[in-house]
Design goal:
The protein has one domain. It is built from seven helices and no strands.
Amino acid sequence: MWRWHKNLNLEMNVNKNLIDHFKKHAQISGVIFILLGMAGIIFPVFLTLTTVMAVAYVMLFAGTTSAILTWKSNREDWVGWLKSFILFLSSGIILLYPLQGAAAMGIIFSIYFFTDAFAGFGLAFSLRPHKMWLAWLFNALTSLVLGVLFLIGWPMSSIYLIGILVGISLLLDGMALLMGSAFLDQIDDDNKGDKS
C-alpha cells in the first residue's frame, strides 16, 4: 500500500544527522524501556505505585499551572480556582494514600476497557462481511477480558494489574523502538547498496 523505502530514502539523505541521532537514541531508549517493562512485569506492585505517584505529580503540576493561569488571566474566575483546588486535593489524596489511588485507577481502567470493548464489538459487527472484522472482534474481546479482570478482584487486583499492564506497554514500546532503529538501519544499508 505505502512505499516506505522510496519515501524515506529522500528524507534520510536530507536528514542523515537527524536519522543517525534517532537510531542511537531509539536503541538506548528501547533497551531502557524493555528493562523497565520486564522489571514492571516481575515487580508489578512497585510499578503500580510508581505509576500512581507519577499520575499524582502530573495532577499536582496541572493544578499549579491552572492556578498560575487563573491568577494571571482572571483572578475572579471561580471555576479556574475550583479546578486548581480539585487537582491539588486529588493529587494530595493520591500521594497520601497511594493504595487507594491504585484502586481508583483500577476502576478507571476497567471503565475504559469496558467502553473500548463496547465500541470494538460495535465496529466489529458493522464490518462483519470484511476480513478485518475478526481483528476488531479480538480487540473487543481482549478489552472485555481486561475489564473483567480489573473488576474480579477489585480493589486488590488493581495493585498488580496496573503494574503488569504498564510493564507490558513499556516492553512493547521498547521493542518497537529497537525495531524502528533496525528498520532505519536496513533502509540505510539499502541506500548504500543502491549507490554502489
